[in-house]
Amino acid sequence: MAGGKEPIEVRFRLFDGTDIGPTKYDPSTTVSSLKEFILARWPQDKDIAPKTVNDLKLINAGRILENNRTLAESRVPVGEVPGGVITMHVVVRPPQADKNSGIADNFSPLFITFS
Topologically, how does it sit relative to the membrane (predicted)? Predict the structure, then answer.
């Protein structure tokens, strides 16, 4: 397919280093749709599990991706290998024990190293 309409292959790296995918997506797929895919395929054996797409953040090349953006808009072509798989990191919001704790928007800390 010409003109940047080729499918984009993405894998999702979870907090413990396991992966969901890789799977090919149309460049017009929204980040919100990617999160729905992750929710549907979340491993059942994980202690931490998201309940909604709002419990997930996707990170690509150090940038948090916005739900309303498409995969094509969220790509960072610098450093990508043509035809290669893009790895996006998944951060999960921890369960909230007390809504009045004042830390409702915090996400679990995660150290990501790039080599």
Answer: Lipid-anchor
